[in-house]
Amino acid sequence: MKNIVITGxxxxxxxxxxxxxxxxxxxxxxxxxxxxGSLENIAEIADNPNFKFILHDIIEPLEIDEPIDEIxxxxxxxxxxxxxxxxxxxxxxxxxxxxxxxxxxxxxHNARILQTxxxxxxxxxxxxxxxETYRGNVNPIGLRACYDEGKRCAESLFFDYWRHEGxxxxxxxIFNTYGPKMNPGDGRVVSNFIVQALNGEDITIYGDGSxxxxxxxxxxxxxxxxRMMASxxxxxxxxxxxxxxxxxxKELANKVxxxxxxxxxxxxxxxPSDDPTQRQPDITLAKExxxxxxxxxxxxxxxxxxxxxxEKANK
Length: 315
Ligand code: UDP
Hints:
Elements: E1 3-7, H1 12-23, E2 27-32, E3 51-55, E4 70-73, H2 80-83, H3 88-109, E5 112-118, H4 145-165, E6 169-174, E7 177-178, H5 189-198, E8 203-206, E9 212-214, E10 216-217, H6 218-229, E11 239-241, E12 246-248, H7 249-260, E13 266-269, H8 284-290, H9 298-314
Parallel strand pairs: 1-2, 1-4, 2-3, 4-5, 5-6, 6-11, 7-10, 8-13
Antiparallel strand pairs: 9-12
The protein binds uridine-5'-diphosphate (UDP).
The site of uridine-5'-diphosphate has 14 residues, from α5 and β8.
């Protein structure tokens, strides 16, 4: 049994991680401000004596008066519609002040700490697929910069705490992920398309739909995050994690429509600024160092996700 802190623990990935680690017999302390997460996501473990929820924004320093072995830092809104606009400054603060606060916590407790970074640090990638050595092509003053540059700064903080403060760090870069516990209203493409098709509404394609993403099912992603945390000391990453099978957004829309049926039509909306044209992880490093590759392909993963949203709609 380990004592584990998960920041961002009521969000999509955080809640899936909390549930897995509690069910494996660990003590889990979940920290979240519930800006994009929700207590509903962790309802099934809320009464477990090994689980504790703390309502806290990691922009503020975090004290925990229990032993801590491991910290997973997942706190940050991850959907463009949630991190842009009026929440953009708080997003940068979450990445930067939040990282400092969790790194200080790790240092104090001598805990191992894993940062969930993002494929967004590659910006509009010139190199395709993206390897970890690619340094990216981010617009530092664009609408996505609060997230992209915030996450880049977080990586630099993690590596400075490792180099200068002796903190035992791990960094993963998460590519697009989908599955149960996504917030139906959070604006991301998989949840939007499924919810729109289920409601018989138009499927909103931004731009011409030729931009690509590579979609990883949540269980595969949680598995590799846990493996990274357990990897040999000194293997810091960063490691790309995601499913390398690439689809255009239009292909995704047609796939969702063919599964759900109904009368929805494809509707074109303007492409948001700085929306990356292509994205595909090179996962050679994860395969070699963590013995991992995704098992659930998009067809099966979409079926499970559609079933989740149907059940949620009927509650
Ligand atoms: N997208 C879309 N329709 C939507 C939501 C998103 O066409 O209703 C597109 C978006 O422009 C982007 C891709 O789908 O090219 C993935 O968007 P998402 O917000 O899921 O994640 P991102 O990879 O951009 O962070």
